[in-house]
């Protein structure tokens, strides 16, 4: 309990001193701003003697300030905890004054050197810069230590103490950001002075990278904490401690995101890469845009995004526009080349003596055309700066995943390759497969489209076709027409046979080779059956079938040859009643019987 009280007393002292210092700093800042406004306007109008005099005054003032700074540093080593807080604020104030005066002294020096060289004053200014610049790194380390010591109070602090802790962290974080900004300003004046800033700039860049990395991690960690606290508040809405901790966490998030934005702005001025950190910042804070509105982060991000877009359009837009035109030009050229390759290969295959199926023909033509377009696309993408190696590797991995997911489709593809290799049918053939009779309309390596005899379009997977019996009706040039004709048992067999042979010989579409066949085939229950088997071209099958059938009927009728058909005779038998039993023997009985007709 005493430890918590001590912590609260310390925080109260810090806040009181901070408010007092803030008031004095505001007053000093107002005076400084007013003084600058008075001095800045006449600076261009001052004579060389007046500028020299003001520079001498600043040199004397800076010497006194440096003595005070060194005295505060010595006193800090032996001071009590309460005195350390006072000395710390005094040290911050005097260092800020030294920094501002060095900036002003540098402006005066550059003003004097426009007229005549100032080697002595330049030497003094360079010595002051060399003295102040390490102080900035010392201030960075000291402020980081202060922030860490305040954060160390969190684990043992009560819920109501967390928000004051975050306020104190925010105060020192603002000071730390100011020191980083001052560091960058010193680099600029060192460049104006012609001093070597390579090592200082590298050190500042490292510090900013470390700072951005640290803040990015803290933002992510704070977001997780906020999510947990929100879940906790939903479970226990009346828990006051959870609400206080949530408010403190949101304040912590505001502090870190604001500081991260300031750090990234400084990195942009040094032309350092900030894309990943900005992406993390936007991604991490998208669910807390309303909470970040007060800090101005969302507005800054939107403004920076718009600025980046306009800068990109003005600086890099023409370059990428030219690349886009080159990309489209390459695609256009290779598209024309693809069409030429398609047309050339198509004509070459048609004129060649290769007996290719239409499926193989189309596959070769399409593959060659697509390969030309594929290489054209790769060349076009390379002009946009896209690395082809990772792209091809990604396509390979994607192909493996897609192939694993589309196993049935790959099965159809494999069946299509087997159909292409063995050619059981081709486009235009009449086939009977899978219970479907139809003409092959079109085909590819995945499916075959059939047009049925009643003009229905049926698409069948190649896997189902190859795994079933394939009946190609029109695969051969000639086809036999099988017909059966029956005559009555009382008709002349030789006469009927001669009539059938004459009919086949007189038909112009019946082929002489192989020779048509007419034979007595079976003695049926009601007819004597002849088989008639002429050979015809595939396209003439149904015409010959219908013509011969019609001619046989007409000739048989002319020659008196009957074509029997099934008949039945019905006989009715009745059973007499009792009243008719006496005369039953005197009347003939009636009965029902069915017999086959007499075919004679």
What would your notes on this structure say?
- It contains 17 helices and twelve strands.
- It is α+β, with helices and mostly antiparallel strands.
- Among the domains are: 319-405, Helix Hairpins; 414-472, Roll (SH3 type barrels); 478-559, Alpha-Beta Plaits (2-Layer Sandwich), CATH 3.30.70.100.
- The strands form four sheets. A five-stranded antiparallel β-sheet has the order 4-3-2-1-5. Strands 7-9-8 form a three-stranded antiparallel β-sheet, with helices on one face.
- Residues 1-45, 287-297 and 589-600 have low confidence and may be disordered.
Structural class by sheet pairing and helices: alpha+beta
The parts where pLDDT drops under 50 for at least 5 residues are 1-45, 287-297, 589-600
Question: What is the overall silhouette?
Answer: elongated
Tell me the span between the first and last alpha carbons. 131 Å
What's the CATH C level of the domain at 319-405?
A: Mainly Alpha
What is the second-level CATH architecture of the domain at 319-405? Answer: Orthogonal Bundle
Helical stretch tally: 17
CATH topology of the domain at 319-405: Helix Hairpins
Helical coverage, percent range: 55-70%
- Oligomerization state of this entry? single chain
- Our Rg estimate from Cα atoms comes to 52 Å
